């Protein structure tokens, strides 16, 4: 009879993500991930086979993360617009420091140049856009945003989010979350319905 797993694959992948944030993908080793997850390197080899396979599993898990992020955001607020903002602002968690941002950008280089990683990254990006579009469409239906093209707004917000964090890492003024919130405010301002007092 096999022994039950005390550490889930999800926990190991979360540890791998933390290691990437700490040292970047080039310096990631199975030993570092094992240390962060509280398991042996042999356990990682048994479950994932290799460092590359582990990273591919991490990339694949990010597709489900996009869906889970929306589910968790909806639990926090009944407002679809507030949920959409929470999902977008959570991207700042990848940029606790400019160095951590640089490490995640290094992983993105792998995503863009390796066909196997790119396939998963593209799938994740499209799922993020689909989930955000659904929230924005709901926000428009609820009167939280002006009626319009929710898909175009979703793409714009995701583009601004990515660019905002990169700009913050360069300028390094305040926190990444504060910087990102200001940029999201600027993009969303024209989409907000006019106050009732101004429409009379």
Could you explain how this protein is built, in words?
The protein is mainly α and 200 residues long. It has a single domain (9-192), classed as Tetracycline Repressor, domain 2, CATH 1.10.357.10. Helix content is 72%, strand content 0%. The protein has 9 helices and no strands. Helix 1 packs across helix 2, helix 5 (80-89) runs antiparallel to helix 7 (115-141) and helix 6 crosses helix 8.
List strands and helices in order, with pairings.
Layout: H1 9-23, H2 30-37, H3 41-48, H4 51-76, H5 80-89, H6 98-113, H7 115-141, H8 150-171, H9 176-188
Helix pairs in contact: 1-2, 1-4, 1-6, 2-3, 4-5, 4-7, 5-7, 6-7, 6-8, 7-8, 8-9
Q: Descriptors for this entry?
A:
200 residues; Tetracycline Repressor, domain 2; elongated
Q: Looking at the structure, what is the overall shape?
A: elongated
Tally the helices: 9
Secondary structure: helix percent: over 70%
By helix and strand content, what is the structural category? mainly alpha
Question: CATH topology, what is it called?
Answer: Tetracycline Repressor, domain 2
Radius of gyration, in Å, reads 19 Å
Contiguous runs where pLDDT drops below 50 for at least 5 residues: none
Span of the ends, CA to CA: 74 Å
Look at the structure and give the mean pLDDT: 90
In short:
With 200 residues, the protein is mainly alpha-helical. The protein has helices at residues 9-23, 30-37, 41-48, 51-76, 80-89, 98-113, 115-141, 150-171, 176-188.
């Amino acid at each position: 009879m096999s022994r039950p797993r005390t550490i889930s694959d999800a926990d190991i992948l979360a540890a791998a993500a933390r290691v990437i944030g700490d040292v970047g993908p080039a310096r990631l080793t199975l030993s570092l991930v094992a240390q962060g997850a509280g398991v042996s390197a042999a356990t990682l080899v048994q479950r994932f086979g290799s460092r590359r396979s582990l990273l591919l599993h991490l990339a694949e898990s990010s597709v489900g993360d996009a869906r889970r992020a929306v589910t968790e955001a909806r639990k926090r607020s009944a407002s679809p617009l507030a949920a959409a903002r929470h999902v977008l602002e959570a991207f700042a968690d990848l940029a606790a420091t400019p160095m951590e941002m640089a490490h995640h950008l290094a992983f993105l280089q792998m995503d863009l140049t390796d066909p196997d990683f790119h396939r998963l990254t593209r799938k994740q990006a499209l799922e993020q856009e689909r989930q955000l579009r659904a929230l924005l469409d709901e926000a428009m239906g609820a009167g939280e945003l002006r009626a319009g093209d929710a898909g175009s707004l979703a793409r714009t917000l995701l583009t601004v989010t990515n660019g905002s964090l990169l700009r913050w890492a360069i300028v390094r003024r305040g926190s990444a979350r504060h910087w990102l919130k200001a940029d999201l405010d600027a993009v969303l301002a024209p989409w907000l319905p006019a106050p009732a007092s101004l429409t009379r």
